[in-house]
């Protein structure tokens, strides 16, 4: 029997999505997310959940790919409600 103590569902694990999917979730364009990432990197934000970037987003670079962390609060916003700076 595998060890499952403390893990109740797949929702307990972080979910990372690509730039295009995050733009759809937030109702923004991918270029807007690129601009936010550029500004965040200048300020040293976005890569750490304790210091999220613009729009409250946490993102990481996996080799040449950018992934955004999807939180339950973010999914609750719905489409078109994510416009925040």
List keywords for this structure.
85 residues, alpha+beta, single chain, three-stranded antiparallel beta sheet
Distance between the termini: 47 Å
* Element pattern in H and E: EHHEEH
Please tell me how large the radius of gyration is.
14 Å
Number of strands: 3
Apparent shape: globular
List the strand order in the largest sheet.
Answer: 1-3-2
Number of helices: 3
Major sheet summary line: 3 strands, antiparallel
Strand content: 15-25%
Question: In percent, how helical is the residue content?
Answer: 25-40%
From the helix content, strand content and strand pairing, which structural class follows? Answer: alpha+beta
Overall mean confidence score, pLDDT: 79
Extract low-pLDDT stretches: none
Textual characterization of the structure:
The chain is an alpha+beta fold and 85 residues long. The chain is built from three helices and three strands, in the order βααββα. A three-stranded antiparallel β-sheet has the order 1-3-2.
Tell me the layout of helices and strands.
Blueprint (H helix, E strand, L loop, with lengths): L14 E4 H8 L3 H14 L15 E4 L2 E6 L1 H6 L8
Antiparallel strand pairs: 1-3, 2-3
Helix pairs in contact: 1-2
């Amino acid at each position: 029997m595998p060890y499952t103590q403390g893990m109740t569902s797949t929702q307990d694990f972080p979910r990372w999505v690509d730039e295009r999917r995050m733009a759809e979730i937030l109702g923004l364009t991918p270029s807007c997310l690129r601009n936010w990432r550029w500004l965040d990197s200048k300020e040293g934000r976005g890569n750490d959940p304790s210091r999220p970037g613009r729009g409250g987003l946490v993102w990481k670079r996996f080799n040449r790919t950018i992934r955004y962390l999807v939180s339950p609060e973010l999914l609750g916003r719905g489409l078109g409600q994510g416009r925040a700076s």
